[in-house]
Design brief:
By secondary structure, this protein is of the alpha/beta class. The model has no long low-confidence stretch (mean pLDDT about 90). It has helices at about 10-25, 40-45, 60-65, 65-85, 95-110, 130-135, 145-150, 160-175, 180-185, 200-215, 235-240, 250-255, 270-275, 290-300, 305-310, 325-340, 340-360, 365-375; strands spanning about 1-5, 30-35, 45-50, 85-90, 110-115, 135-140, 155-160, 190-195, 220-225, 245-250, 260-265, 280-285, 320. The longest helix is centred in the first third of the chain and has 18 residues, at about 65-85.
Length: about 375
């Protein structure tokens, strides 16, 4: 079968690449064309547009790059029309993907499947109307999404979480040489404080300077920045200045595995840190902090911003965003993680519960099998 996939950012590239590899196992005749990244390209197929040319976040960046966004959308539509796939598979990225879904259903009458639901459970619940109308199948990766969609009278399939797969694969690869990372990166014997400041330039600008200020309080730790897939070393260097801080790309799991603690910008990284059992502080700067906190409390549909707390349905990690985001607050929480053993162990025990809730690995394989079976009916 012919599959057209759309992933608009680094995490989507990762999950889509694993799905493509799984589809290859169940469909020996599979052929892929996609908007995505290097990981998808490594699996095979035709790359139409790289996500680095698509990942714009926030009102101002979108307005500034509107011409490019519209051009990307036109290119995507033309490629789908020419390729005539058996299915279009969307990976998160709702602002772009739901527009494509409408086009595909109304103009081409091709099945549309969604892998990794848009976060309409957080806000923009109205998007359920477009999902009902234009998306034939939804494959969810978070347990609480099942109940959410059931209440909206929309049936979905829960396939498990692909981060569980990725971590399991990583752990298996590390069994023989668990300390190779330390030697390869020429790290010293100090405990590691990992900084994961987001995957976009704006997130770096908003979060990294404060994270680095907090890191200054801990000369007994070696601070290491996890370089995001869509960014380059030069994007970080102006914030580091002359400080002895390393940036390591492509080895975030290795970095987390060897870290004593982490400061993490909210997103999939919070869940990955939990699955790798790293105590963390969730730090996310938002302009007009007090107003942002008010909006979150009164207009969002969820009580938390981090996947760890959402899955656990309780405060497991502290979320310092809005009016709680400050050097002082982050420092205070990091102190507890580093020096209060009871507090630290409680967080690690809750991580074990998260791992239990998410279940066994195999999300990509389950999703691929369901996709192939549904298309074969």
């Amino acid at each position: 079968m012919k599959y057209f996939l759309i992933a608009g950012e680094a995490s989507g590239d990762l999950h889509a690449s694993n799905l493509m590899a799984a589809l290859r196992k169940v469909d020996k005749e599979s052929d892929f064309r996609f908007l995505g990244g290097d990981l998808m390209q490594a699996v095979g197929g035709t790359l139409v547009k790289h996500y680095k040319e698509m990942a714009y976040m926030g009102f101002i960046p979108v307005i500034m790059h509107l011409k490019t966004i519209l051009k990307n959308m036109k290119t995507c539509k033309e490629n789908i029309r020419q390729y005539r796939p058996d299915v279009v598979i969307l990976i998160d990225y709702p602002s772009f993907n739901l527009k494509i879904a409408k086009f595909v259903k109304e103009k081409l009458n091709i099945p549309v499947y969604y892998y990794i639901s848009p976060k309409i459970w957080a806000w923009k619940k109205y998007r359920i109307k477009a999902i009902r109308r234009y998306v034939d199948r939804m494959f969810c990766i978070l347990p609480f999404e099942i109940d959410f969609y059931n209440k909206l009278q929309y049936n979905v399939d829960y396939v498990g979480n692909p981060s569980v797969d990725a971590i399991a694969k990583f752990r298996a690869s590390q069994i023989q040489h668990p300390d190779h990372f330390i030697k390869e990166e020429k790290l010293n014997d100090k405990p590691i404080l990992a900084l994961l400041a987001g995957s976009r330039k704006q997130e770096l600008k908003d979060n990294l300077p404060t994270m680095l200020e907090v890191a200054n309080f801990y000369p007994e730790l070696q601070t290491i920045i996890a370089g995001a897939p869509g960014l380059e070393a030069k994007d970080y260097e102006s914030y580091i200045a002359n400080r002895d801080i390393k940036i390591i790309f492509g080895k975030t799991y290795q970095l987390l595995q060897h870290s004593k603690a982490a400061l993490v910008t909210s997103g999939t990284a919070t869940l990955e840190a939990a699955l790798l059992c790293v105590p963390q502080v969730v730090c996310y700067y938002v302009v007009w902090g007090k107003i942002a906190s008010f909006i979150f409390q009164h207009f969002f549909h969820i009580p938390y911003i981090s996947l760890v707390n959402l899955i656990g349905q309780k405060t497991i990690v502290q979320e310092l965003f809005g009016n709680r985001f400050s050097k002082e607050q982050i420092h205070k929480e990091l102190e507890r993680i580093l020096h209060d053993s009871s507090y630290r162990n409680s967080m690690l025990n809750e991580y074990n519960n998260i791992i239990r809730i998410l279940g066994n690995e195999g999300a990509s394989d389950r999703a691929a099998t369901l996709i192939f079976n549904y298309l074969s009916i």
